Amino acid sequence: MNSTLQRNVVIVGGGLAGTAAALALSDNGAGTSGNSITVLDRRPTLGGRAYSYEHPALEETIDSQHVVLGCCTNLVYLIEQAGAADSIRWYDELFFLEPNGNRSRLKPGALPAPSHQALSFLRAPMLGLGDKLGIARGLMEFLRGYPASDAESFRTWLQRTRQTDRAIRHFWEPVVIGALNDGFDNCSTRYAGKVFHESFLRSPQAGRLGIPALPLSEWLVPLTDLARSRGVEVRMKSGMTALEQLPGGRWLVGTEGAAFEADSVILAVDFKQTQALLQGLPDGSAAAADFDHFVPAPITTVHLWYDREVVDVDHAVLLDTRIQWMFAKSRIRKWSTYRGTYLELVISASWPELKMSRESILRAALEEVAMFFPAVKSAKLVKSGVLKEARATFSVTPGLDRYRPSQSTQWPGLFLAGDWTRTDWPSTMEGAVRSGRLAAGAVVGNARQFLALELPPTGLMPLLIR
Ligand SMILES: Cc1cc2nc3c(=O)[nH]c(=O)nc-3n(C[C@H](O)[C@H](O)[C@H](O)COP(=O)(O)OP(=O)(O)OC[C@H]3O[C@@H](n4cnc5c(N)ncnc54)[C@H](O)[C@@H]3O)c2cc1C
Question: Is the beta carbon of 132 within 6 A of some atom in ligand 1?
Answer without folding.
Answer: no
